[in-house]
Design goal:
The chain has 452 residues and is an alpha/beta fold. The protein has 2 domains: 31-361, Alpha-Beta Horseshoe (pyruvate-formate lyase- activating enzyme), CATH 3.80.30; 365-439, Arc Repressor Mutant, subunit A (Orthogonal Bundle), CATH 1.10.10.920. The protein has 15 helices and 19 strands. The strands form 5 sheets. It has a 9-stranded mixed sheet, sandwiched between helices. Strands 14-15-16 form a 3-stranded antiparallel sheet, with helices on one face. The longest helix is centred in the N-terminal third of the chain and has 19 residues, at 33-51. It is globular and about 55 Å long.
Amino acid sequence: MSLSPELIQKYNMPAPRYTSYPTVPLWENNVSGQTWEELVKKAFSVFGKTEGITIYIHLPFCESLCTYCGCNKRITKNHAVEDPYISALLKEWNKYLTLFDTKPKLAGIHLGGGTPTFFAPESLFDLLNPIISASEVMPEAEFSFEGHPNNTTFEHLETLAKLGFDRVSYGIQDFDLTVQQAIHRIQPFERVKEATENARTLGYTSVNFDLIYGLPYQTQASLADTFDKVASLAPDRIAFYSYAHLPSAFPAQKSFEHHLPQEQEKRALYEFGKDLLLKLGYEEVGMDHFALPKDPLCQAKSQGKLHRNFMGYTTSPSKILLGLGSSSITDIHFAYGQNDKRIDAYQNMINKGDWAIVKGHVQTEEDIQTGQVILDLICNQKAEIPFGFWEKLGAEQIENLRQMEWDGLLTWEGNILKVSREGIALVRNICMQVDLRLAKTQSKVMAFSKSI
């Protein structure tokens, strides 16, 4: 069922995406270098030796600006930036290695950006080979990267495949030329087809397409044509994201803001696209994500083992996610730490032998408990509320949950909250009602994108 216009108007408000709890604007920034090292050691001792670690590497360079993009990036055609940046990444990795008392077990690697395939294939090899060689790769490890179809060459795919990569995510966004011109990301279908076929020829077992709804000039007709083209390539997974319009943070978005679909039209685009995906045989995994039934994500969801972190939905149970590179966030369960977003500042700090963390948060027991409730709602659409938790919620949050139950977004029986099919679209709004830190800071203005 689609959301009514009344519910869209009622609940279309700024809401966190909950890639972490607490969300980054609510971190207390109480992490020192010594505290960080002690907590990394603790996390590795408790989780690392059994679950292993996953690594996210942020590669921030792009040759041209996609005006819709909210990622941390630097636009340059100067590829001389590759070597100094890789040198800093490896120094940061080696700094973490000194904190581990045994060879780390590697549960996964993900390359994000920016544009990871801005880097030459040999540069990526020089970066990744030392990291993989210093680790024990776990049998079910997942190595993936984000590729721009225009510059992901056969050599890129081949080099990464030899290192163990078998998953690739292509940023498609939309195939309509008018939309592509508006967001300054022009990539012909033929190029996407070639990049997809190259990956499969080389043995990649999973191809994901990122698509966005709510972009300028999008219509249901143009979206239908995009999905026809997507269907012909049959990606294993599809992320169907809501465009996040935050021009105060990303000024390039102002170039097309008068041509964006409004909230009712935008929601209709999502419902239309979701219906097409379901008819094509994809299953809804969670917020914004779909996969074919045979995909491990669908299997993990059916078994109640789906997990979510800064990289999105995953089957990896690892509680340690090391973020390397500028702006990267590390999650060690007991704390979060984010590196400086400024590339030069990041490199300078690492080259001096320091940590590049400029923002962080040490988790309280209440944070961990609340985070698990939110994770269960987002991954499993069901959460058991711990004893004593209700008493911590304010009267407004309790009333909001009751109102959401009345609106058909959830059911509330005893200590069990269940998100309805209609409520999945507004799960961010539901999570806000059990967000204890957000309730205490309602007076603050948060730069969150709208939930619809």
